[in-house]
Structure to design on (616 residues):
């Protein structure tokens, strides 16, 4: 079971995107027990600065084609190059990060290879299927997150899937595979460049969920932008980050960057405090893997209590100020 | 004069899933869900109309789906589309993105001389965001996905902003091109009252009585359909047969229900909660 992982970097920092490491490790756990190797494929202007790290997570080889004309996402060029790499290796599995780059190119490649691509998988595993031998089982939420579907691609190769950043976990221990990068020969065709990049405006990232141990999130129940101050204060007092439900974002209590859930960020902090959030499926999709969940909600029937570990039924506008007071006393 | 095709899908309103939307066996009861115009396809249509309003063009909305999808095509006419087409055939059922994009791409080729294809970024039933790019691949167009703003356009080129996640990219592209459009790009217009009155009776040919047909034809009320044979498609590439991915199993999502420790709302209870949080999660220097 040979796997290929699309390797992507953050174009602003020139560092690997976390999802590339996460998928390398995932591919290793799928392929290694069956004696298969994991290859990375990369194209762009320059290799990511820290690409060596991939080899600590189970990668055997990294194929790359770099060219200064590829500094930006030229979909058609990227497709031709990555497709050539995939064809030359004939893997069983190809994994892409479900980033805005991965979701741009992966469907082009699947279309060209006439194979299946399952978007936004949350679980991947290998098992027997009828007389087909071992295949990849791809689980993903569908219907706005109301159902969990298991998708298979029994008759086509490669079996392709995309996974969002933060969904697969990185292991504690590191492997020590030798670093092996190989330049891949390509006859670059100028006609593959079809778009002109007139400007790049980096987005100012105000929210950092990745390094936060604690996230305090507010929902519609917070009631107003003014009340949302309580959420920020609690987050600050605990040294955590501020999260939000989509309802809180839609009401304008807080900026969209803070949204957690199916159409926001997937987070997995040690502690997630959900204040005035009912816990609809689309919100849970982004936070239910948190190690511990505290729910503060005035409705004892709110679905959030179904996944919470600790809870208080009551008005957050009364509870949080008391929490803040005790935090000051204890801290 | 630009020929613009908009890809639009009718989807179950997954935002309003109620109790009876799930069947006993954990599968989706589509009948219990209201069907709506896929939200971001409205943004794609709005963009098409904006371009048409300024540089002249023809806007053609196509949808692959069951006869009921005629509802969104009527809505497209109310908004100002020039032509609509329903691509419908039992043989298209259970198509994944590869099979869907094959049918849509062949339709675009059949329409011919298309300059611009606009799709929604993603459909809310599957959230795959794959059909747009896969159509682009099959018709050999350049593509720009996640278009969050149409900045400038002329007969020769388009300048758009793409949401590149960590950065916003300003991209200039010539025609022909396929764009996938996000909700941020614009606000879809309301249906036009005059057009609504006119197309209110628009429907599939089969739904008119024989004696109504000539009036329907005169008034442009007949919504054209296209089947697999009309398009000359290969059956092996359509519907379930043409879909490499198969749904192996479906289950509705249940709450896990863990060990839930409840705290009261008295000051002492809250103090205990704070202590428990501090003990486990806050590093005290
Ligand atoms: C395609 C799609 C994608 C989506 N993506 C996301 C996503 O990424 N993230 C997301 O969050 N949602 C998403 N949603 C929306 C989601 O379905 C819910 O609408 C949303 O999560 C609800 O937010 P909420 O819990 O804050 O609001 P509500 O459901 O309105 O809940 C508010 C809660 O606050 C409680 N409350 C009210 N007042 C108080 C008070 N004073 N003190 C304490 N509690 C109080 C209420 O009891 C209630 O439980 C998506 C929906 C769709 C269709
Ligand atoms: N059956 C269909 N008919 C017309 N357009 C479609 C269809 N399915 C998908 N699309 C288009 O492709 C986009 C992405 O769909 P999806 O890949 O399903 O998320 C949608 O927003 C539509 O513009």
């Amino acid at each position: 079971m040979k796997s290929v992982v699309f390797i992507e970097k953050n174009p602003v920092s020139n560092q690997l995107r976390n999802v590339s490491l996460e998928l390398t490790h995932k591919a290793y756990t799928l392929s290694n027990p069956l004696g298969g190797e994991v290859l990375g494929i990369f194209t762009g202007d320059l290799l990511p600065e820290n690409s060596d790290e991939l080899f600590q997570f189970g990668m055997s080889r990294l194929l790359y084609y770099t060219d200064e004309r590829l500094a930006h996402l030229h979909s058609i060029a990227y497709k031709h190059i990555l497709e050539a790499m995939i064809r030359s290796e004939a893997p069983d599995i190809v994994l892409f990060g479900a980033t805005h780059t991965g979701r741009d190119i992966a469907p082009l490649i699947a279309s060209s290879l006439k194979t299946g691509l399952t978007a936004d998988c949350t679980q991947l595993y290998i098992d027997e299927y009828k007389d087909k031998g071992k295949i990849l089982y791809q689980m993903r939420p569908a219907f706005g997150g109301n159902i969990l579907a298991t998708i298979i691609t029994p008759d086509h190769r490669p079996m392709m899937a995309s996974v969002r950043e933060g969904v697969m976990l990185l292991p504690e221990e590191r492997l020590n595979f030798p670093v092996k990068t190989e330049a891949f020969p390509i006859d670059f065709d100028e006609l593959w460049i079809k778009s002109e990049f007139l400007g790049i405006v980096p987005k100012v990232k105000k929210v950092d969920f990745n390094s936060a141990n604690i996230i305090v999130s507010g929902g519609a129940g917070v009631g107003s932008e003014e009340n949302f101050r309580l959420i920020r204060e609690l987050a600050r007092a605990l040294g955590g980050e501020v999260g939000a439900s989509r309802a809180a974002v839609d009401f304008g209590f807080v900026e969209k960057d803070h949204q957690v859930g199916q159409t926001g960020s997937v987070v997995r902090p040690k502690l997630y405090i959900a204040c005035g959030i009912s816990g609809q499926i689309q919100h849970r999709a982004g936070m239910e893997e948190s190690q511990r969940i505290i729910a503060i909600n005035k409705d004892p029937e709110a679905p959030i209590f179904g996944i919470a570990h600790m809870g208080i039924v009551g008005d957050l506008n009364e509870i949080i100020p008391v929490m803040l007071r005790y935090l000051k006393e204890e801290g | 004069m630009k020929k613009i095709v908009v890809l639009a899908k009718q989807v179950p309103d997954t935002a309003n899933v109620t109790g009876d939307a799930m069947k006993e066996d954990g599968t989706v009861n589509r009948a219990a869900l209201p069907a709506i115009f896929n939200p971001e396809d409205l943004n794609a249509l709005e963009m098409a109309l904006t371009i048409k309003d300024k540089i002249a063009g023809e806007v053609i909305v196509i949808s692959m789906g069951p006869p009921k999808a005629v509802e969104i095509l009527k809505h497209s006419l109310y908004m100002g589309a020039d032509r609509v087409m329903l691509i419908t055939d039992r043989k298209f059922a259970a198509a994944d993105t590869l099979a869907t994009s094959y049918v849509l791409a062949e339709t675009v080729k059949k329409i011919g001389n298309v300059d611009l294809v606009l799709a929604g970024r993603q459909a809310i039933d599957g959230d795959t965001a794959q059909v747009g790019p896969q159509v682009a691949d099959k018709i050999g167009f350049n593509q720009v996905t996640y278009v969050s703003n149409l900045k400038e356009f002329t007969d020769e080129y388009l300048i758009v902003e793409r949401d590149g996640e960590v950065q916003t990219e300003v991209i200039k592209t010539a025609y022909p091109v396929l764009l996938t459009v996000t909700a941020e790009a614009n606000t879809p217009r309301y249906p036009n009252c005059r057009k609504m009155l006119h197309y209110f009776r628009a429907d599939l040919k089969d739904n008119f009585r024989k004696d109504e047909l000539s009036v329907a034809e005169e008034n442009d009320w007949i919504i054209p359909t296209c089947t697999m044979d009309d398009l000359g498609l290969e059956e092996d590439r359509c519907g379930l047969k043409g879909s490499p991915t198969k749904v192996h199993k479906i289950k509705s999502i249940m709450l896990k229900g863990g060990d839930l420790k409840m705290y009261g709302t008295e000051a002492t209870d809250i103090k205990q909660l704070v202590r428990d949080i501090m003990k486990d999660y806050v590093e005290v220097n």
Summary: The pocket of flavin-adenine dinucleotide (ligand 1) is lined by residues A 144, 219-221, 245-248, 259-264, 276-278, 280, 282-283, 286, 296-299, 302, 315-317; B 14-15, 124 (CB under 6 Å). Residues 86 and 225 of chain B are 5 Å apart (CA to CA). The helical segments of chain B are 39-55, 70-79, 97-111, 131-139, 193-199, 213-218, 228-231, 267-281.
